[in-house]
Amino acid sequence: MADEQGFAAKMNSMPKYLVSGGLVDEYRLAVYPVILGSGRRLFPEGSARADLRLTGSRRDGETGILTMNRPVPARRRKS
Questions:
Q1: How does DSSP classify residue 27?
Q2: Where is pLDDT greater, at 51 or 21?
Q3: Is residue 45 domain-resident?
Q4: Are 68 and 56 in contact (CB under 8 A)?
Q5: pLDDT digits (tens, 9 = 90+) for 13-43
Q6: 3-state class of 10 per DSSP?
Q7: 56 belongs to a structural domain
Q8: Cα R_g (the chain), whole angstroms
Q9: Would you say 53 and 14 are in contact if contact means Cβ atoms under 8 Å apart?
Q10: Which of 5, 18, 33, 44 could lock onto 23 through a cystine, CB 3.0 to 4.6 A?
């Protein structure tokens, strides 16, 4: 059980390292209109800026939206 918990903790922080290393080709984000008083941030405070280009979207049920986004390379960003 301890090994499983350690593995889960490492996997939980993996996205941070993939994003900071520029290894993410596409972000698939699910958006649902819910108001929460608190929660865990998707991207940790202090994360590097990443401009995204929407490449697709679709509804998920009555209220959800799934979006597909690709990072915009720094050389293509508008000032």
A1: E
A2: 51
A3: no
A4: yes
A5: 667 777 777 888 998 989 888 888 887 777 7
A6: helix
A7: yes
A8: 16
A9: no
A10: 18
Domain interval for residue 56? 25-38+50-79
Compute the Cα dihedral for 12, 22, 55, 69 and give only its sign.
positive
Q: How distant, in Å, are the alpha carbons of 32, 37, 45, 57, 67 from that of 70? A: 20, 29, 21, 12, 10
Tokens, residue 2: 């301890």
Q: Is residue 30 part of a domain?
A: yes
Let me know the angle formed at the C-alpha of 62 by 59 and 65, rounded to the nearest 5 degrees. 30
Q: Does some domain include residue 61?
A: yes
* pLDDT band at residue 65 under the 50/70/90 scheme: very high
State residue 8's pLDDT score. Answer: 55
Whole-angstrom distance, CA of residue 23 vs CA of residue 71: 10
Domain count within the chain: 1
Q: Across-strand partners of 78?
A: none
